[in-house]
Every structure is written in structure tokens, then in C-alpha cells.
Amino acid sequence: MPVIQQHKDEWRFGLLGKDISYSLSPWLHNRHTVTRELGIEVPDYHIFDIASASAVIDFLDQFVQQPKAVGLNVTAPYKTLVAQYFEAPTSAVNTVYRTRAQQFQACSTDPIGFIQALQQLQGFHPNQITHMVFLGNGGSVLSLLEWLSHHPTHFPKLTKVSLHRRHAHKDHLLKNLESEKLPFYLQEFSPSALQQSLQEAPAHTLLVQATSAPHQGNSLQRFTSALDGFSGFFYDLCYSPPSILYQQHARSYPQRALSGGGMLIEQARASQQLWWHTSLSHASMRAVLRTYTHTGEI
């Protein structure tokens, strides 16, 4: 993994977040790979690991003044903060880019990555899903819920979204999203509450493990019992390795379990399109990750 950089690099290009040394983004946007595959010169991609929100604001104030700045990826816990800074049309963002008019804007490529990666699930079709259950309520979930509220026809039979949130103080961000066609149900972040949600319509439920807790040392072991008897689709947004919940479901229903590697790749490709108006192929990115991480869990 590349050395974590201080945030004084003149290029101002990389990943912004906190406690993010685990990230695979530096491999996806590796300068040598991009130059070789796409024939364009790009700067080195750095990790900007910043400890506080106030320091992030200082960083962004400097970033927008850099004439050589290309863009950023943004991850927890700063997706909503960066969205507010750039007055983005969404509550949370994961990409900052320079427009053709040389103005910086921010958006989320999470929904694109989410939908594209779902196509990897054999036998999956959006028409099958009546209930979507989220474990976690971070920035990715906010972006996905906003997308769902504006594109209800993509899951035409979806009638309920259950949100098992770790942080109730974010509930106010959902007030403008709920509608009669897509009601949200705020639930506790507990095994018993999750199990109850999964028992309502198990064959037509999509469970999305969206918390970054496994990357922070929380294995989610206590939630394994909640998946007992669950036969629906499981989508784990974690990667390398996926969470213990994914591993459990994949053993019983391998065709109905999807790890977060595909979403990671597709959202990265969408970010590259914003930065450079071109991108590496999915196959190229997957090959890069397997080469650098020496693992098949992508």
C-alpha cells in the first residue's frame, strides 16, 4: 500500500477520509497503470488521512486554490461535510472534480457503482425486490436512498426500505427523501431488529451491508444469528475481505451473495470519467486489484 501522504502535495489528487489506510483506491487510480492503459499522464494518487472536520475544511480551502488540483475521492466520515462545502445537490458525495469551466463540483458515484455491480448477481432482477434492508446509514446509504427516491421505477415492486442505523443523529437527512411510494422505516442497529426485518419477505428482500465497521475492527459477529434462515439476496459493500456476514451467506447461497469489489470498481470508473473523460475497463481494474492485493476476495 502506498505511504500515507501529508496533505501538502501540490497535485491535490487522492482520497480524503479518516483512518483509511485500508483503502484500495490508490491501486485503482495508480498513475503507472492509468498512463499505460489509457495513454494519458496523470498525477500520483495519495491518501489524505485527516483527523478532524475543521482540518478538512482547511484542507479544502487550500485544495480549491491549487491550479494543478485534479480531484478527490471522499470516504467516511466526511461525505456529508464535503457535500455541504461544495453545495452539492446530494446530501453525501464521494467525488470532487473540476468541470470544463474549471470550477470544482462534488457528486456521488455510489449509485452508479451500486447498480452496475448488482448485475453480477446471477438470477437477480430488480422486479424481484419488494423490501430493501440497509445495515448502516453512512454517506453511501444516503446517496443510494436519494437515488432510489428519484428513480423509483428501477425497483418497480419495492414498497419498503428498512434502515438499521448506527447513527440516529443523521435521521434528519432523510426527511426530504421519504415518499408514499418509498417509505423508510428507521430501525435499531441490533441483531434482533435486523432478524425481524429479514423475516418479512425473505425471498424478495435485498439486504445491503453498508457499514464500514469491518474496516474499523468491528467484525459484526453479533449479527450472524440474524441471517439464520434468510434466503434472499445479500450485497456487502465491504471488500478485501468482505464481512463475516457475506461469508456466512455465501456459504449457504453462493448465487445470492455479492461482495463490494464490483461496486468499488464501478464507482472508481465513474470518478475517472469525471476527472479525465475516460476510464480503465472493469477487467483492467479487477486485474490490478488482484495483482496488488494478492487476493481473490475482490
Q: Any key phrases for this structure?
A:
alpha/beta; Rossmann fold; 2 domains; six-stranded parallel sheet
Protein architecture, described:
By secondary structure, the chain is an alpha/beta fold. It folds into two domains: 13-108 and 263-293, Rossmann fold (3-Layer(aba) Sandwich), CATH 3.40.50; 111-259, NAD(P)-binding Rossmann-like Domain (Rossmann fold, 3-Layer(aba) Sandwich), CATH 3.40.50.720. It is 32% helix and 15% strand. It has ten helices and eleven strands. The strands form two sheets. A six-stranded parallel β-sheet has the order 8-7-6-9-10-11, with helices on one face. Strands 2-1-3-4-5 form a five-stranded mixed β-sheet, with helices on both faces. Helix 5 (110-118) crosses helix 9. It is globular, with a radius of gyration of 19 Å.
Cα distance spanning the termini: 16 Å
Mean pLDDT: 89
SS-derived structural category? alpha/beta
The figure for the number of domains is 2
Query: Would you report the number of β strands?
Result: 11
**CATH architecture heading of the largest domain:** 3-Layer(aba) Sandwich
The level 1 CATH classification of the largest domain is Alpha Beta
| Main sheet attributes: strand count, strand direction, barrel closure | 6 strands, parallel
User: Total helix count?
Assistant: 10
Q: Which term fits the overall shape?
A: globular
Give me the CATH superfamily of the largest domain.
NAD(P)-binding Rossmann-like Domain
Helix content: 25-40%
Radius of gyration: 19 Å
Tell me the layout of helices and strands:
Blueprint: E1 13-17, H1 25-28, H2 31-38, E2 46-49, H3 53-63, E3 71-74, H4 79-85, E4 95-98, E5 104-107, H5 110-118, E6 131-135, H6 139-150, E7 160-164, E8 184-187, H7 191-198, E9 205-209, E10 233-236, H8 244-252, E11 257-258, H9 261-276, H10 282-293
